[in-house]
Amino acid sequence: MEGEFEVVKKYIMTPGPTPISEEVLLEHARPLMHHRSPEFSKIFIEVTEKLKKLFKTKNDVFILTSSGTGAMEAAVTNFFSTGDKVLVASVGNFGERFKKISSRFNLEVISLDYEWGDSANPEDIKKVLVDNPDIKGVMVQFSETSTGAINDIKAIGNIVKNYPAILIVDAISGLGASDLRTDEWNLDVVAGGSQKALSAPTGVAFISISDKAWKLNEKSNLPRFYFDLAAAKNYSQKTPPQTPWTPGISIIVAMNRAIDMLFEEGLEKVFERHRILALATQKAVEKMGLQLLVKDESKRGFSVTSIIVPDGIDAKELTKTMRVKYGVTIAGGQGKLSGKIIRIGHLGYFGMFDSIIVISALEMTLKELGYKFEVGSGITEAERIFMENNYLND
Amino acid sequence: MEGEFEVVKKYIMTPGPTPISEEVLLEHARPLMHHRSPEFSKIFIEVTEKLKKLFKTKNDVFILTSSGTGAMEAAVTNFFSTGDKVLVASVGNFGERFKKISSRFNLEVISLDYEWGDSANPEDIKKVLVDNPDIKGVMVQFSETSTGAINDIKAIGNIVKNYPAILIVDAISGLGASDLRTDEWNLDVVAGGSQKALSAPTGVAFISISDKAWKLNEKSNLPRFYFDLAAAKNYSQKTPPQTPWTPGISIIVAMNRAIDMLFEEGLEKVFERHRILALATQKAVEKMGLQLLVKDESKRGFSVTSIIVPDGIDAKELTKTMRVKYGVTIAGGQGKLSGKIIRIGHLGYFGMFDSIIVISALEMTLKELGYKFEVGSGITEAERIFMENNYLND
After folding, report:
1. In this complex, is the C-beta atom of B343 within 8 Å of any C-beta atom belonging to chain A?
2. How far, in Å, CA of B209 to CA of B224, rounded?
3. Domain end call among B262, B282, B307
4. Confidence (pTM)
């Protein structure tokens, strides 16, 4: 599998972890401050305020030391009681995860299951809420990381706000890549992660909580300790503000710089950059004759592109060749899409030439594996999209 | 509060986070590998095997992305069922935490409560087990981080092995500083953390599980998802071995180097170093006329020294002066010892001159705050202890 040249530069192009800038890595490597010191508290407060700006919310936002799945568990376990009815709109592997967590914690799960690659229909959610006025919570993904589809959270929020249920949004891979407006869209609980569009190291998640959700929290009896958000709130109000348990200090310090970079670029520009990166990737692979998993263009998110592996090509061999020979790590499919798709992440500290690299590596790999297409058609199309969309002159 | 000189070098001398070596910080700053890549898997397997050597066990050891409290929650929630009876031997704040987690998850808690600064009496545990043969688990700290006391885990293990109950040991601040023999001492579940004697960044914990504990796991019905150890086992057996959820990649990579440093020094030497560091600190502060919280010398651990704040001195002012003026961060008391003690951590990447620094800073601070003692008596005693114990020639 190895080429003639020893130096194979490594590129990580998955939907998490995402590429991390050198300056964020240097922040990450700073000697650790104590988590109950005013010095760390200052950074903790700063990061929390910046996260609120990113979430576009005045709600509480708390930092959890865990992967995004921990924040999903926190979202499930802090607002309901045993036997409560919840609705999960599932469009992929992470929708299934909401169902599993809810079932494990003895909630009654009603589910709306969509084809993987499709998005949830807000009208379906409305119908279930009308038929089941006792539903306490609606759970849905913003960007479904396993497929790349995006849900219309604004429309869903506009529905759920009229019911007693709270709306829980897993925005882990979407937050920072696509515009999300927590308060304006009436999102009660929103979960995010350090390792996606923020482009900070893995290991920290965060969660926002609306007043409507806090009211449910008061009556909730599900068991929780490590992910107890009332404890997080209590400790955030101490002097100095802090976390209940020892946090991932070096990750939070890195995040502080990483979020600054998003704000320095300007959030609107960040979203536009992700839109063009996604478009270039998607148009390029279509030009190569490949099929996207998300058929409907309006349902394609900006964070990750899922490509159906063509007949006769082995998905594992494809990703392995890209990783070992070309140094480019992309992701395979999850759950029932395992072996059927590949996923290219294009979020976070990711630029135009990163797209060129991953499409170029994909072209050379597919050529080598015997897939018939016009070599160069993908990168040419990507270049065209970048120029046409004034990627640099926006 | 500020001195004349602008450069105040910073020293972290708390019982977690602990000082991290430059080479571990550089490892920590490496670009992230993908957590499902063979490249990361290799490191994941290596770290797991090294942790087993550190735990002195052939049992399964799993890495969790959380603080130590997450590993404590995993220890509580993976082996019991609702209403099960557990015994917590509590000698401080972290014993209380075991009680709280157990109560939150609806276990019936019997507790043996000792003075904070004392250790658990193994005979008391035996008596409770004899009187309550239906006890399913015994929970105890190895080193109680809030007091510095150490429990006789070997003796406790020798008792609990004869009962159906499993023995759960929070070894978070003790592991790597004092000898702990998971298999030889019959310890069923042992929890550790990245940020203590390992001297890696905060955010990762680990846990070992015996066959006796796995048997209970099969029948356990407590709700769990993020900390589900059966999921951790399942994913550890995949090709390549991995974690169920995205782990703290950069922390695990840093840990790999950090544990190597312990093995390069030699575990026996590491323990002896910690013994002398603790002894020097304890004898030095006694020479200064200060009282240790742990009266009985045989109950003093090697990880952290708790000192009673003398009458007339304000604990907060003491720690603040040390931190702001001298750059030396130590810890205050936790729970009911808040404001009553200070705690000096001397574990991990910590040497003789680190002890000299912290005692020197403590001397100058106490002098400034009006405490009457012979200035220099502490550091002189520390030097004497280091020389007498052949710290360098061992």
Report:
1. no
2. 16
3. B262
4. 0.96
